[in-house]
Every structure is written in structure tokens, then in C-alpha cells.
Design brief:
One of its GO terms (molecular function) is transmembrane transporter activity. By secondary structure, the chain is an alpha+beta fold. 50% of the residues lie in helices and 17% in strands. The chain has 25 helices and 26 strands.
Length: 788
């Protein structure tokens, strides 16, 4: 019997080639999209879960409450936190500190290069399961001069040698001994590094990390097997208050599972508020949408063409076929189409995956050796086949032989209503994706073109390191003589991120019970000129004023917080140093556009120069400026490689995730519309076929081609309009929720964005339908009526 059903199914596919192709292609595209997203979601969910003790590894987080501001959450902690947690809490089996990623110069003989790495304390390599190929994880970071390097660096600096025990010179100042070699890091790690250096070296050059009042490094703990993470989190909540003996301290600690941090990194007012997990959910929803759209195509075409199978069902029932066997046959046909679609989908994914990987910066591959992968494929195919074939099977198997054998099958109003409802649902999903595509694109465009309060074009910055630190004034003076260079300055912070903040700011009349957080950075002369920041009142720092080393420039937000009506010339005490406010600048963005502009204090660098050099090139002469910058740099800092960054490019990199989402939204919206139009094309073709004689009669009676096209098109266009009524409120709510992540730097959802989505849907639907409508309208009525 099964063999017989298979033959019938195959013959039906061959007999109705156009509709079979539409069904297979629609399902294949839906399944291909779902498969790609499944691979991406698997990759995202696997991040940081490869560590042997994953369930017991936590990072320590801080909630900070400041006057007039929401609670802010940060992974930055005091540099002495880990060792004290391990000492004071028996539940903490191991603890380690780790810094942010840093670029440092490594030199071995004549080989040198800037490499990316971190400083980490002793327990780091025993907490995490990074593949240590040489050395002992327990002692590799114990020595003050220890450095653990990657296999890549070992091959670069010690080719054909055993790197263990060899010496590497760091920043031309310290000799470090290789105490370990780490194998290639797993793809699913968010902690990237090419080297790890001992914590003692970091402390040596950063004494501030020994104080409870200074934050910066990250703290990680490994809890013992019996520890309850929630109870430990509650126990350490007021730990910093206890250590500093300040009950007014506004900092509270809590634990977050390390493998959760990648996907759950956003906090709002001290509470978890999403992160990349939102994109994971969004992609899953999109995959479901597109697969449902493809299944709806199948349902609609199968039920619409049921008139062709009605007599077959009637005959089968007369000769004794049971409803269950008929349902099995039709579901079987659906499953056959699903498996054929799966084969096509795998080919599509194989072709598209390299492009998708390049776009998302992933390394997704088919996991053919993984049994779970095959189970997922089988489940996806069976689910698609059962969902798409269920309603047609129920409908066809319910037909009564007495009715269908008398003549032409007429659909009941309920069946017609259901089919139209499916079209409405299908296009509603498509319109939602189009609205999302438009709004995401507009938001990304708004971010990329937003006035940040300074000019990010033609602004280059480079690290202030090596001999540049002591020779910066001379280096700057010589640069200013070079053609193409307009201005030069220096800053502790790069142009797009002021990462340091403090509450150590006082002024006359300040409420001493208020704890207000100010961002701060040290700058050099011509900082405002180099950044092209607008001065609201007062002046910039100048060598003509010797007292400027203790004076301050603030932004408008700081002026508002301080409350001075006329801030110029007023006293301000910063970190215990009294000075006066000499300038107020217009607010400019010092951090991510996801947060509102915050108070900022600029002060002069007083001792050794550090941070970055800012170089503004004259418009249209950037290439010339870079050539002169390089030659001057090599003269002053020959032992370091020449490296620089364009501010506008780095700004774009900061919003890479949003750019990727924007591009994917475009592709998925197009795919959803294309699949929907495949179904609409099939339905239009079937409708035209069913009404061939009616069209012939109307043409004989004088109907024009335009009349006939409108007659065949209007029912479908009404369904698309109804879809808009359903989709627009849902799409508006969803996109408004997404835009909230951009704080005050967001667009408003305007009526025209929704109107464009509706008009685009109507135009695409009309174009799809009109092909079949015009073809039917142009048919010679003699041919359509001669068999009557």
C-alpha cells in the first residue's frame, strides 16, 4: 500500500509541475532560512559553555547608584576584590582578576609586533579551561615576570623552537619569561587574547588597583560544588561597604554566571534588561515566520487545487477507502514534498553559508558528524510536512463521495474563509518584516549620520607609547609643521569612549549627601580644536595661562548638575585639587549612543603623557597627512610599529551588531515577501484557470482587459489591505520596544514608514497577480468556450 501511495504522490508531482515547483521552492526557501538561523542560534547559545566548570564560574558585577541617575551596572571592580573574596568567603574556591584587552609591543631579537592580550592573576588558567599545551596552569601566572603566549605567537617569535622558558621583551621596558603556551582558543569564547601577563606587572604600573575606591579590572570566581550562587550573591552584596567602612557607599555586588554574560549583558536601573539574547529571539521569530509563510503557501495551493482531486477521493471512498488511509496518503505526499524541499534547502544553505558567515563574522558549518544535527533536520522536515499537509489532508478526506461524483466541487464558505485567512496571516507576517526593515535601516542611518557634537571625519588617533610619552611636546610641534595636518592634541581617552568616572568633585554649595558621578579625562592643549568641539562659553586650555594645569573645562550636563548660573571663573575641586572653570563646551557624545549624555570634566595632563594622540587632517589631504605622520612617528618612535585608527571607522565598528541586524532584516523581509508571492502567484494562476470560461463570456460581452485584470486582482488586494490592518499595530509596538534601547538617540516611528510598507506590499502583490491576470485576460475566448 505504501508503495502505491508513493507512486500516486510522484505522479501527482509530475502531473502538476508548476504547482509542485512552487510548493517545493517555497518550502525549500523557508527551510533554508530556518536552517541557517538554527546554525546561528546554536553558535550563539554555545558561547563560553566549553569550560569544564561552566556551572560554577561567575563574574562579579557592581550596581552603582548615583544622585539624579538610574542605577548603573558594570563588570568593572576594584583590583583587590578577587583575592579578598577568596580569603573571606569559604564558598569561593578560586578567584582571579583580569584586565581589558591591551595592545603591547613584544620583541624577540629582530622580530617585534603589537599584540593583543590581557593581564590576569594566578587562578585564571585553573578557573577557565583554555587549552594549555605547555606549562602548568596552576603556576603559569605565579611569577611577576610570567607571560603565557598563544601557539600563534610562539611560532612567530620562536620558530622551530620550544618557546617555554624563553624571554620576550615587553614595551621595550621589561623582560618576561614564557611560562606557558596556549593552544588555539575555541571559537565559542568571548575572552580573546594572544598573551596573558602576570597580575604583579599590572599592579607595578597601576598602583591605583590596590584601592577599594577605584574600579577597572574584571573579577571572576569559581564557587565550590556545594555553594548556592544566589546565596553567595546575597552574602557579598554589601562587601565593599564593609571593607571601606562607609555605610553610605552606594555600591552593591552580585554574581552573574559567566556563560550568561555574552547573551545577557544589558542592565537597566540595576536589573537585567536583555542583550544579544534579543537578537537570538528575534532571529528565531523570523525563522518561524518564514517557515509558517512557506507552509501556508502549501496549504492554500493544496486546498485550492483540491477540486482536481475531488473525484479521486470520491472513487476511493466508494471502493472502501477509510478516511484515515486517505489522510495518510495526503500527509505522505506532503512529507515527500518536504523531503524534496529539504534536499533543495541543503543546497541553498551550502551556497549561501559562506556569504552569511562573512556578514555575521561567524564560522558556521554543517555538522554532519553530529547525530543531533540530523535529528534536528529530521524534526524540521517532519514538522514542515505535517503542518503544511495537515489541513489539506483533513479537508480532502472529509469530502462526501455523493457530492463530488455528481459534478464540480464547490467550496463551503468556511473553507474559502479559512484560505483567505491564511493569506491574510501570511501577508501580515511579511508586512511586519517590511516595517522592521524600514525602521531598523532608518535608525542605523540616523546613528551613522548623527551629529556627535564633534567632527569624526578626518580625525585620526594613535597610542601615545614608547618614546612618544617623554617626547610628546616635540613630536606635536613637529607634526604641526607638516603639510596636511591641521591640529594635534592628546587625551587619556580615545575620541569615542571616556572610560573613567569619579565622584571626587566638589563645589561651593554642593549638597554633601549627594553622590554625583562625573566622567573625566585628562587632555592637552588644542584638544577642543583637534576634536572640533564647540565652546559654549569661556576658553580652551592655553599655554598662555600657567594656572591651567589646575583649571577645568566642563560640558553643559556638568554645568546643569553643579548648578552654577555663570560657571566661568567659579571654583571647582577635583580629586582634592582646587581650580576654576575656564570653559563650558556644548554637550558631545563621549560614549555609546545607547546611553544619554553624561556629565564630563576635562583637566590638563600634568605629569607623564599617556593615552592617545589626536591628529586632525585638513579636509581632502588625509593621505598626505598620514604619510607625514608616519615619517615623523618613525623618527620619534622607531622601535614601535606605526598604527593608527580613523575615528569614523571605529564609530561604525561600535555599531556592527546593529548594522548586521539591518542587513539581515532586509534579506529576511525580501525572502518572506518572495515566498508569499510564490503562493499568491499559484493562487492567482489557479483562480484564473477556474474562471477561464467566465472570462471568455465576459470578453464576448465586451469586457476590456483592464476590467478583467481588476476583477481577478481586487479580491487578493483586499486581503493584502486587511493584512496591513492586522500587521501595523503589532509591528509598531515591536519596533518601538527595540528603539527604546537607544535611549534619547532614536528616531520616531512616523506614519510614512508604515505607509511605505503597505504600498510596497500592495505593489508587489499586484505585480505578482497581474502576470496571471493579464495572461488570462489576453486569452482568445473562442478557445476557452469551444468545449462548452
Amino acid at each position: 500500500m505504501f508503495r502505491n501511495y508513493l507512486k500516486i504522490a510522484w505522479r501527482n508531482l509530475q502531473r502538476n509541475k508548476t504547482f509542485s515547483l512552487i510548493n517545493i521552492l517555497g518550502l525549500a526557501l523557508g527551510m533554508a532560512c530556518s536552517l541557517i538561523i538554527l546554525l546561528w542560534v546554536q553558535d550563539e547559545l554555545a558561547m563560553d559553555q566549553f569550560h569544564a566548570n561552566d556551572e560554577r564560574i561567575f563574574r562579579v558585577m557592581e550596581n552603582q547608584a548615583w544622585a539624579g541617575q538610574d542605577v548603573s551596572t558594570t563588570p568593572s571592580t576594584p583590583g583587590i576584590l578577587a583575592e579578598n573574596l577568596k580569603k573571606d568567603f569559604p564558598e569561593v574556591e578560586k578567584a582571579a582578576m583580569m584586565t581589558w584587552e591591551q595592545n603591547m609591543l613584544l620583541t624577540v631579537g629582530n622580530t617585534f609586533g603589537k599584540e593583543k592580550g590581557r593581564f590576569a592573576s594566578g587562578d585564571f588558567l585553573t578557573i577557565f579551561s583554555f587549552p594549555l599545551k605547555q606549562g602548568d596552569a596552576r603556576t603559569a601566572l605565579a611569577r611577576p615576570d610570567a607571560i603565557v603566549i598563544s601557539e600563534k605567537l610562539a611560532q612567530k617569535y620562536f620558530p622551530h623552537q620550544d618557546a617555554l622558558g624563553k624571554v620576550i621583551r615587553v614595551d621595550n621596558t621589561d623582560d618576561m619569561m614564557v611560562t606557558g603556551v596556549v593552544g588555539e582558543l575555541p571559537e565559542h569564547t568571548s575572552l580573546k587574547f594572544d598573551y596573558l601577563m602576570s597580575w604583579e606587572r599590572f599592579v607595578k604600573y597601576n598602583a591605583w588597583v590596590k584601592e577599594w575606591g577605584n574600579n577597572g579590572p574584571r573579577a571572576f570566581v569559581l564557587l565550590n560544588k556545594k555553594a548556592d550562587s544566589e546565596k553567595v550573591s546575597a552574602k557579598i552584596k554589601d562587601y565593599i561597604k564593609q571593607k571601606t567602612n562607609k555605610q553610605t557607599n552606594n555600591i552593591e555586588l552580585f554574581l552573574q554566571k559567566n556563560s550568561d554574560a555574552y547573551l545577557h549583558s544589558n542592565f537597566k536601573n540595576g536589573k537585567l534588561d536583555g542583550g544579544r539574547i534579543e537578537y537570538v529571539r528575534l532571529f528565531i521569530i523570523v525563522a518561524v515566520f518564514i517557515l509558517v509563510i512557506a507552509c501556508i503557501n502549501f496549504m492554500n495551493l493544496a486546498t485550492a487545487r483540491s477540486v482536481k482531486r475531488a473525484k479521486e477521493v470520491g472513487v476511493r471512498k466508494v471502493v472502501g477507502a477509510m478516511r484515515q488511509s486517505l489522510m495518510g496518503q495526503f500527509v505522505g505526499e506532503s512529507l515527500l514534498i518536504s523531503f524534496l524541499a529539504l534536499f533543495v534547502a541543503i543546497l541553498v544553505v551550502a551556497m549561501v553559508l559562506p556569504v552569511f558567515n562573512e556578514l555575521t563574522e561567524k564560522h558556521l558549518t554543517f555538522r554532519f558528524a553530529d547525530p543531533f544535527f540530523w535529528l534536528v533536520l529530521l524534526a524540521l522536515t517532519l514538522l514542515t510536512g505535517l503542518v503544511s499537509g495537515s489541513y489539506p489532508a483533513l479537508f480532502l478526506s472529509s469530502l462526501k463521495p455523493v457530492v463530488v461524483l455528481k459534478g464540480v466541487l464547490k467550496f463551503k464558505p468556511s473553507a474559502t474563509f479559512f484560505r483567505k485567512g491564511l493569506v491574510v496571516f501570511q501577508f501580515s507576517l511579511s508586512i511586519m518584516l517590511i516595517v522592521g526593515m524600514i525602521i531598523i535601516y532608518r535608525q542605523i542611518h540616523y546613528i551613522q549620520t548623527k551629529n556627535l557634537g564633534f567632527d569624526k571625519e578626518n580625525l585620526v588617533y594613535m597610542p601615545l607609547e614608547g618614546d612618544l610619552k617623554k617626547n610628546y611636546p616635540t613630536f606635536r610641534s613637529e607634526l604641526l609643521t607638516q603639510p596636511g595636518i591641521k591640529s594635534v592634541s592628546a587625551s587619556w581617552s580615545d575620541p569615542l569612549e571616556v572610560g573613567s568616572s569619579t565622584i571626587g568633585v566638589n563645589w561651593r554649595g554642593k549638597d554633601t549627601t549627594q553622590r554625583i558621578l562625573f566622567n573625566q579625562t585628562a587632555v592637552h592643549y588644542d584638544y577642543l580644536k583637534a576634536m572640533d568641539i564647540r565652546l559654549k562659553e569661556g576658553r580652551e586650555f592655553s599655554p598662555d595661562y600657567g594656572t591651567d594645569t589646575t583649571n577645568y573645562i566642563i560640558n553643559e550636563e556638568s554645568a546643569r548638575k553643579i548648578g552654577y548660573k555663570n560657571p566661568i571663573g567659579q571654583e571647582l575641586t577635583f580629586w582634592g585639587r582646587k581650580g576654576i572653570i575656564v570653559g563650558v563646551v556644548k554637550n558631545y557624545h563621549i560614549n555609546s549612543l545607547h546611553v544619554a549624555i553624561e556629565p564630563l570634566i576635562l583637566h590638563m595632563q600634568r605629569k607623564e603623557f599617556d593615552g592617545v594622540v589626536l591628529i586632525r587632517a585638513e579636509k581632502g589631504r588625509t593621505k598626505e597627512a598620514l604619510e607625514n605622520l608616519e615619517s615623523t612617528f618613525r623618527k620619534f618612535n622607531p622601535r614601535y610599529p606605526f598604527e593608527y585608527k580613523f575615528t569614523d571607522q571605529e564609530f561604525g565598528n561600535n555599531y556592527k551588531s546593529e548594522n548586521i541586524i539591518s542587513k539581515l532584516a532586509n534579506y529576511f523581509a525580501f525572502l518572506a515577501i518572495f515566498i508569499s508571492c510564490l503562493g499568491l502567484f499559484g493562487l492567482a494562476a489557479f483562480t484564473a484557470e477556474q474562471r477561464t470560461k467566465e472570462i471568455g463570456i465576459r470578453k464576448v460581452l465586451g469586457a476590456s482587459i483592464t476590467n478583467i485584470v481588476l476583477m481577478l486582482s481586487k479580491d487578493f488586494l483586499v486581503l493584502v489591505l486587511l493584512s496591513s490592518v492586522v500587521a501595523l499595530p503589532v509591528a509598531w509596538w515591536a519596533m518601538d520596544s527595540w528603539l527604546e534601547k537607544f535611549a534619547t538617540n532614536r528616531i520616531d516611528i512616523e506614519w510614512w514608514m508604515l505607509a511605505v510598507a503597505v504600498l510596497a506590499s500592495l505593489a508587489i502583490a499586484l505585480f505578482t497577480i497581474s502576470f496571471q491576470s493579464i495572461k488570462a485576460a489576453l486569452m482568445n475566448p473562442v478557445k476557452s468556450l469551444k468545449t462548452e
